[in-house]
Amino acid sequence: MLTKFPHLRQDFAASLVVFLVALPLCVGVAVASGVPAELGLVTGIVGGIVTGLMRGSSLQVSGPAAGLTVLVFEAVNEFGLPALGVIVLAAGLLQLAMGALKLGRWFRAISVSVVEGMLAGIGLVIIAGQLYAAAGLKAPASGLDKIAGLPGAAADALGSAGALASLAIGAGTIAVMVLWKRLPKKAQTVPGALAAVVLATLASLAFSLPVATVEVKGLLDSIQPPGLDAFGELANLSILGTILAFTLIASAESLFSAAAVDRLHDGPRTEYDKELMAQGAGNTVCGALGALPMTAVIVRSSANVQAGAKTKASRVLHGVWLLLFAALLPSTLALIPIPALAGILVHAGWKLIPFREVVGLWRAHRGEALILVVTAVAIVAVNMFEGVLIGLALSVVKTAWEASHIKLEVIDKGAGPIQAYLSGNATFLRLPKILDSLEALPQDRPIEVDLSGLHHLDHACRTALENWAQRHSAPDTEPVRVTSNTG
């Protein structure tokens, strides 16, 4: 057996670690998304067994992700839980098509600032929303309302013994997760998130605390494949925008995670198009089961690598352990306090905000730092999809601006014509600067403009230069001469 599977021992041990990391996260993401807890486990199972068996990135682990919590919550609120399966199914089919068309590698061209801004915005919305859940209060719908309502929520919580008990569980969960990393390595073989949930559950039971716990429906009762009525929602244009948002954000998060995981190990590199198809297959199955969408998750993936996994067997086995738990021990979910899961997600949301990267970017590339911040603020203020589009648009404008660098050198020897040399890229973005400089030249002297140093001259600039040359010179002065080898 060991000869046929030489890494079975390492992969078996790693799969148990990943299972213990994934279990509280699957449940927490589902509860925060406004869907039954079991659906988070279903997505984790599919991510392990279906996506795990496919080619792409051998050590990357997929499942429900905190990064999609905000989008799922908005979709369920707007279209209802039955429509979620249709959205996820359609997104999965789109990912399969993009992978087949070899579009996976193009996601690597997305500005890192936009992705980090997206994660920061998601992190802020998750933290704000889960602070309400930690106090046992209902969170407002929009990101801005969540943040604006926090002072009032804090005042309400201080006047309620139940809310204070709930907050204590949430705060204790976060404290355990933060302090767990300072324990000896042997203690850390038990993941901090699992330890925090177990301790919070024991504390709430021991002191009979009046806190809400996870509602359990049972695995088979929670799985609701989308019916024909749900497919009728596809006629709604707004649901098509949501499908596109799921597709782009889940794909970007998965492929950026793959690049990060590749830096953690020396094994085979990610095949991006195949990984996109693996994610698409997983999401198609999740959609057919009415479950949450999946992405590759860096927390589970890094735990898999650090636990010594060598092949994809570890992630497949972690899916098997999740399936066994969901089948044999689902009632234990009903013991878990919801504020403990809120604490886990507040901690996860905090880790999504790239504080160090913002500081580094501000020092070296202020334009990129601005894109990151604007993307994050737009996600909080508007919504996730439009916030990402705003970030992408800013990134394109910035790139175009930098690509249109142009230099104007004027040589005036006092006698003879004034010589103006243009070099670089003349695009409409720099047209005002070019015209301001040329119009400042004297009108009563001959002028020669040399365009041979231009790499690119767009139509708008060419037309504007020709118009300027025709009207610049005074009536008794030689007309402006323009020389060019750009055709």
Automatic annotation (TrEMBL):
It is found in: Membrane. The chain crosses the membrane at residues 12-32, 79-101, 113-137, 157-180, 192-214, 234-256, 320-350, 370-397. Pfam families: Sulfate_transp. InterPro entries: SLC26A/SulP_dom, SLC26A/SulP_fam. Keywords: Membrane, Transmembrane, Transmembrane helix. GO terms for biological process: transmembrane transport. The keyword Ribonucleoprotein does not apply. It comes from the Bacteria. GO terms for cellular component: membrane. It is a multi-pass membrane protein. The keyword Transmembrane helix applies. Residues 8-375 form the SLC26A/SulP transporter domain. This is SulP family inorganic anion transporter. It comes from Streptomyces acidicola.
